[in-house]
Each structure stands twice: as structure tokens, then as C-alpha cells.
Design goal:
0% strand; mainly alpha; 296 residues
């Protein structure tokens, strides 16, 4: 667990170690099957996998990923943007989202397991069943890492979490836990998921009212609450930017007064949340069909 947080070279060596990732996954599967999700060794295994999934999209060899993601053949050879699952440009991102996702291997080995639906379902199961904060946070964090990029792999993982594995109810529960870093990681994961336009209506329906409910009424209190609030505002921005229906959902959840209050907080300490709230308000105003409702 300590070695897995030793930086890029350490992560690379551990990902390449024959049988290591398979053994970690095998152990966690056994713990879940034996109804022992709070086992300390399970926590250690999940934390290692969390660390090994960090910057996975960038750090895997391009030759490896090209054999899996044939979409790259469609990308202009003139585009030299680094990143093994695709480039960072919006145009390419949209093109990739229109491309059928690759079929999964039925028996993944080693590094392939890190983004496989089997492990994604294990993380969601641990989020739902474990009461250990570190296990919950590491499971959420691994999914956050896997959905952080812009290529086909992060998009496929997001689709699995939201639509194939029905993971939103478990993630939603984590928004209401008292442990601040678990809550922060859950919000960060939702922010990543909310970037995918095809998933936005599902996410808004399932968790938008919950996101609004955990925005503080006034005073942000601490740095971590400020970070959580800023992340919520950017998630709501993603969900409402091109959807009047989702903006109406935000209104019906009484989100507008809270967001206005946050946006007017001019303390330097909380400027991050204030700026995010202002960006969200600016975006909400672009829905001209809602102006009369806003004024009321």
C-alpha cells in the first residue's frame, strides 16, 4: 500500500508485476463473497488498486492501448496530443463518444482488470456494503481516477457505473455520510460522470436534489466544505448547461437561493466556491425560457 503511492515509476513497476493485480482482485472478491467487506486487508487491497488506477489513461504504454481501442485509427495522425486513450480536444471527445465502445475481455489479466466492469462492480459493492471510511473513500477514488480522462476508457467506465451497474444509488448514499473526505470524493466522482452528455439525464434524476441538499445554507465553515461546494456547483453546471429540464429540477429543489448566497460570499478563503457558484448562475441565466421563473 505504501509502495503503490511512490510515484509514476512505482505504479508502473507494480502494474507490470505478474499476478499482483489479479491477486488483489481475487482477495477482495473472496472477502465480499464471505460477507467481510470491513476486513482490514480488503481496505489495503482497495487502496493499492486506487493508487494503481491514478493517471492510468496517461501512463499506460500507447502501443498497449492502441491494440484495445481501435478508435484511435480514426484520429488524425497530425494530432500529437499526449494521452493513450485519446486526445484532449472536444471534437475528438465527441467523436469518440459516438463510436461503439470496445468489447471487454471475458478473462482480463493484470492491468486490464483495472478498468474492467468486474472490478467496477466490486468497487460499487464495497461502497454499498463496507462501513470502513478508508475502504469507501478508496473505492470512490478508484472510480474517480478511472473516469478522470477524456478518452474511450474513462467514458466506458462512466457508462458502466451509471447505466450497466446501477451505481448511482450507492454513490448518492455517500453524499450524506459525516466523513468529509468520503463525501468530497463522492462529489468529485459525480463531477467526472456529469461530463458525459449521454449520462446527464440519469445523473440529474438520481442525484441532483441530493447535491443541492448538501450545499450549505450559509457560511462554508472550512476549506474542505468549500472544495465540496465548488465541486457540487461545477457538477450542477455540467448537468444544467444544456438542459432546461435539469435547470428546472435545480429550481424545484430550492437550489437557487443557496447558490446566490454562495456566489456573494466575497471572503478570499472561500473564493473558489464563490467563483464556481457564479459560473453556475451565469450558465443558468442562459436558459431564457426560465427567466420569469428565476425572477419570481
Amino acid at each position: 500500500r505504501n509502495m503503490s503511492s511512490a510515484g509514476p515509476e512505482g505504479r508502473k513497476k507494480m502494474r507490470e508485476c505478474d499476478g499482483l493485480i489479479d491477486s488483489l482482485v481475487y482477495y477482495i472478491q473472496g472477502a465480499i463473497a464471505d460477507h467481510e467487506p470491513n476486513d482490514k486487508a480488503t481496505e489495503n487491497c482497495v487502496c493499492i488498486l486506487h493508487n494503481l488506477s491514478y493517471q492510468l489513461e496517461i501512463e499506460l504504454p500507447e502501443s498497449y492501448t492502441q491494440s484495445i481501442y481501435m478508435q484511435r485509427r480514426n484520429i488524425s495522425s497530425n494530432d500529437k496530443t499526449p494521452g493513450c486513450f485519446g486526445t484532449r480536444s472536444r471534437k475528438v471527445k465527441e467523436k469518440q463518444q459516438d463510436t461503439p465502445l470496445p468489447e471487454e475481455k471475458s478473462n482480463p489479466r493484470g492491468v486490464e482488470s483495472l478498468w474492467h466492469s468486474t472490478l467496477i462492480r466490486i468497487y460499487l459493492s464495497l461502497i454499498a456494503k463496507s462501513t470502513r471510511n478508508y475502504t469507501q473513500e478508496a473505492s470512490l477514488g478508484a472510480l474517480q481516477n478511472l473516469t478522470a480522462g477524456t478518452g474511450p476508457m474513462p467514458f466506458a467506465v462512466a457508462q458502466t457505473v451509471v447505466q450497466k451497474a446501477n451505481g448511482l444509488p450507492s454513490i448518492r448514499t455517500m453524499l450524506h455520510v459525516s466523513h468529509p473526505t468520503v463525501k468530497k470524493t463522492a462529489v468529485s466522482l459525480l463531477r467526472n460522470l456529469s461530463r458525459n452528455t449521454s449520462l446527464q439525464s440519469d445523473i440529474a434524476r438520481e442525484v441532483l436534489p441530493d447535491l443541492v441538499s448538501i450545499i450549505p445554507e450559509s457560511g462554508l465553515g472550512s476549506d474542505i466544505v468549500c472544495e465540496i461546494t465548488a465541486s457540487i456547483c461545477y457538477t450542477l453546471y455540467n448537468l444544467t448547461q444544456s438542459s432546461s429540464n435539469n435547470a428546472r429540477l435545480l429550481l424545484s429543489a430550492d437550489g437557487l437561493p443557496k447558490i446566490i448566497t454562495i456566489s456573494m460570499n466575497d471572503s478570499n478563503t472561500f473564493s473558489k466556491a464563490s467563483r464556481a457558484a457564479s459560473v453556475l448562475l451565469y450558465s443558468l441565466w442562459s436558459h431564457t425560457d426560465l427567466h420569469s421563473t428565476y425572477k419570481k
